[in-house]
Amino acid sequence: MEAYLDPAYEWTSLLVGPEAVVPWWAWVALLVMIFWSLLAPGLAAARKREEERQRIFRMQEAGYRRLHGLDR
After folding, report:
1. pLDDT digit of tens for each residue in the chain (72 aa)?
2. How far is Cα 29 from Cα 20, in angstroms, rounded to an integer?
3. Which parts of the chain span the membrane according to its record (predicted)?
4. C-alpha 41, offset from chain centre
5. What single DSSP character describes residue 18?
């Protein structure tokens, strides 16, 4: 088991350790970009649904006002 852990620890320290080839902030930026690309379409869809909901609400409110003579 030790024979597997030592190389794994060495590779990990080369990737994210203090003497890493790639700095820590580059790894963080990569993770942020990956998760943002997964999250962004959902945020856009939620924004579109909210705009549609508000549009329908305004149409219903205008119809109610017109029906009850409150639009004058």
Report:
1. 888 899 998 888 888 877 888 888 888 999 999 988 888 888 888 989 999 999 999 999 888 888 888 776
2. 16
3. 24-46
4. 8
5. T
